[in-house]
């Protein structure tokens, strides 16, 4: 009877693994294990193959059996803990690490413990563990960058990642983290530089991943969630590219970024991709988008912005009852996932449906606080200009733009209360009070124009409409009829 040690089987298995045909190798190895349940070679290769197709639960089962059959081999205990960690079984992974008793594996053990604590959002414990590593260890710089980023220190995180890049050379995950840091700093051109490098290397080095073929209309099969795909950081890079295009209001570019990524079946999609698909296509496929976002909320982990985006999109599409239900059913998520601004805004918006006067008062309080903050930033900007401090000017301007967006959002929601009552004089009054901070904003100008038009103040309305129309001349198409 043939065994895994037989030359024919060994050559076949190793060729399949070399060609990255892990699923076929798994099929043969499972057949061998049915005949020889304690075969060390079969279990070891099977664990390796499962790990590479990211079936970490089955990989963990293989390595668990190996730790029982060969307790003297400390590497199996490490592989078992790594597989549990990758499967999201963090307490079990920590327990498995305690079984390790090898000075040679101590550094790897500390690094894995650090990753576990980071994923458990125990950042202080992760930092303490990380400090056990030598400061010149490239992984120290990489992981310290992650902790700095998590702490909101994006510039410091970026510097840490760039230092690690100099030592380690090109790594897709490291380049992605640098791009993410630049994205958080609103430096989109630099972020796109690193994203482009990830994508171009992926196209050049992994033609089997069918990058961009779906966008071109070519029918392609799923490439699966292999470890190779994970190591290229392509999915993360395309999602970040989509986010940047979305922020730049280039919806077509955002959609293409999602279809350019290596193709996978619906059930293979990760939570971030599902979230971005829902968000970017919400106007064309609202029902599908809401379904995806609601589904994500049921998962043990989901993108942090999912909860807020679902509530805001329900409100945007005037599904206020659904928004209220989601908020009530997930009250425990509000503190963790909603900023005070978003929570207050949603509370006022939902109040509009039953008590518009009370809602107006809530919006007015928010508007007053934002006005104070905008004036403070205006003063800081003037001081930075006098001091010719370019870095401070840049930071303050970014903060001002974000705050102005929030202010205009509150202002429009407040004005809509009177717009719905056709009290256009009151709407105009609200807009006039906000001219100090909004007179350069096209959204504000357009709504001012609308309310003037509704009051038959056509000449004044044209004064607001005309600059906006001229700005968008290139988008106008003419008919020959």
From TrEMBL:
Gene3D superfamilies: Tetratricopeptide repeat domain. It is found in: Cell projection, Cilium. One of its GO terms (cellular component) is intraciliary transport particle B. The lineage of its organism: Eukaryota, Metazoa, Chordata, Craniata, Vertebrata. The keyword Coiled coil applies. GO terms for biological process: cilium assembly; determination of left/right symmetry; establishment of planar polarity; intraciliary transport; opsin transport. Belongs to the TTC30/dfy-1/fleer family. TPR repeats lie at residues 40-73. Pfam families: TPR_16. Residues 367-394 form a coiled coil. Keywords: Cell projection, Cilium, Cilium biogenesis/degradation, Coiled coil, Repeat, TPR repeat. Transmembrane segments: none annotated. This is Tetratricopeptide repeat protein 30. Required for polyglutamylation of axonemal tubulin. Plays a role in anterograde intraflagellar transport (IFT), the process by which cilia precursors are transported from the base of the cilium to the site of their incorporation at the tip. It comes from Kryptolebias marmoratus (Mangrove killifish). GO terms for molecular function: intraciliary transport particle B binding; tubulin-glycine ligase activity.
């Amino acid at each position: 009877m043939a065994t895994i040690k037989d030359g024919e089987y060994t050559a076949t298995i190793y060729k399949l693994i070399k060609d990255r045909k892990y699923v076929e190798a798994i099929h043969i190895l499972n057949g061998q294990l049915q005949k020889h349940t304690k075969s060390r070679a079969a279990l070891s290769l099977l664990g390796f193959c499962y790990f590479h197709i990211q079936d970490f639960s089955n990989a963990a089962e293989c390595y668990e059996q190996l730790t029982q059959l060969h307790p003297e081999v400390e590497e199996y205990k490490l592989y078992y803990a790594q597989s549990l960690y990758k499967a999201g079984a963090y307490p079990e992974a920590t327990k498995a690490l305690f079984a390790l008793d090898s000075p040679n594996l101590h550094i790897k053990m500390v690094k894995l413990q650090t990753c576990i604590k980071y994923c458990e959002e125990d950042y202080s414990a992760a930092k303490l563990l990380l400090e056990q590593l030598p400061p010149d260890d490239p992984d120290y710089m990489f992981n310290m960058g992650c902790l700095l980023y998590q702490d909101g220190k994006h510039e410091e995180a970026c510097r840490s990642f760039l230092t690690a890049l100099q030592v380690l050379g090109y790594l897709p995950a490291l380049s992605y983290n640098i791009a993410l840091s630049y994205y958080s700093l609103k430096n989109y051109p630099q972020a796109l530089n690193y994203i482009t490098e990830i994508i171009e290397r992926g196209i050049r080095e992994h033609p089997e991943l069918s990058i961009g073929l779906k966008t071109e209309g070519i029918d392609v099969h799923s490439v699966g969630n292999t470890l190779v795909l994970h190591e290229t950081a392509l999915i993360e890079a395309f999602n970040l590219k989509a986010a940047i295009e979305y922020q730049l209001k280039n919806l077509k570019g955002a959609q293409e970024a999602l279809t350019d990524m290596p193709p996978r079946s619906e059930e293979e999609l990760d939570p971030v991709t599902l979230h971005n698909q829902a968000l970017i296509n919400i106007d064309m496929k609202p029902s599908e988008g809401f379904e995806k976002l609601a589904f994500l909320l049921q998962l043990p982990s989901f993108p942090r912005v999912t909860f807020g985006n679902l509530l805001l999109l329900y409100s945007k599409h005037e599904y206020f009852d659904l928004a209220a239900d989601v908020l009530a059913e997930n009250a425990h998520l509000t503190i963790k996932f909603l900023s005070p601004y978003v929570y207050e805004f949603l509370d006022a918006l939902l109040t509009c449906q039953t008590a518009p006067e009370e809602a107006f008062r809530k919006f007015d309080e928010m508007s007053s606080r934002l006005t104070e903050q905008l004036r403070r930033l205006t003063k800081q900007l003037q001081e930075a200009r006098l001091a010719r401090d370019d870095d401070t000017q840049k930071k303050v301007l970014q903060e001002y733009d974000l705050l102005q967006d929030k202010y205009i959002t509150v202002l429009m929601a407040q004005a809509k209360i009177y717009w719905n009552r056709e009290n256009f004089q009151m709407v105009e009054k609200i807009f006039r009070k906000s001219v100090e901070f909004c007179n350069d904003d096209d959204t504000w100008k357009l709504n001012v124009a609308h309310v003037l038009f509704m009051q038959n103040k056509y000449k004044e309305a044209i004064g607001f409409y005309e600059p906006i129309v001229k700005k968008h001349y290139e988008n106008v198409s003419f008919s020959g009829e």
